[in-house]
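Researcher: Sequence recovery benchmark, item below. Answer with residues only.
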């Protein structure tokens, strides 16, 4: 049932947001040189790697690090438009293609980078890696980038135990509210 809901929502989302995609693609090209889409290898269901899609919000020479690792470097990697894309989470819209391809779900644990070894091992140990990663998730509405890996793992484990279509609907609703406030988004 969840996969069917994901497919329907992704198809509707792609149809509704396609005009916005075209505008964003144009603005990204005007703002900075480089590709419109950012592709990054992430760890998905059962530890399988896949290529996650996003609108590019960072300069092309930015190192391939997690948000926490980037903050530790004290780099300012974001383009002018990229800061706004991240704050509004519009950079995540291309992940609807990942949902259509079955690599992701609308709701689930956010896919980690392969270099986030402790988080990936914890997810495997707790059975979380059996879930499709999500565009949004329980951790995203309960701290987002403000959470440590241990806190993310705790929230992901809680989601695994409590998951339901009702909870997913609640998470989507709260995600929309979080986007408008920008809370926890670095």
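Model:
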């Amino acid at each position: 049932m969840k996969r069917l809901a994901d497919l329907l929502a992704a198809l509707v989302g792609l149809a509704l947001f396609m005009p916005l995609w075209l505008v964003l693609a144009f603005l990204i090209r005007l703002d900075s040189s480089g590709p419109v889409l950012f592709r990054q290898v992430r760890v998905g269901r059962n530890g399988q790697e896949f290529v996650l899609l996003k609108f590019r919000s960072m300069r092309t020479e930015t190192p391939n690090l997690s948000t926490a690792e980037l903050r530790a470097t004290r780099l300012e990697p974001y383009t002018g438009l990229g800061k706004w894309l991240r704050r509004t989470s519009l950079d995540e819209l291309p992940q609807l293609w990942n949902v259509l391809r079955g690599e992701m779900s609308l709701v689930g644990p956010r896919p980690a980078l392969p270099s986030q070894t402790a988080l990936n091992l914890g997810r495997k140990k707790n059975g979380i890696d059996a879930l499709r990663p999500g565009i949004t998730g329980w951790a995203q509405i309960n701290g987002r980038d403000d959470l440590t890996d241990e806190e993310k793992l705790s929230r992901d484990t809680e989601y695994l135990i409590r998951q339901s279509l009702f909870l997913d609907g609640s998470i989507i609703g709260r995600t929309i509210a979080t986007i408008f406030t920008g809370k926890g988004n670095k």
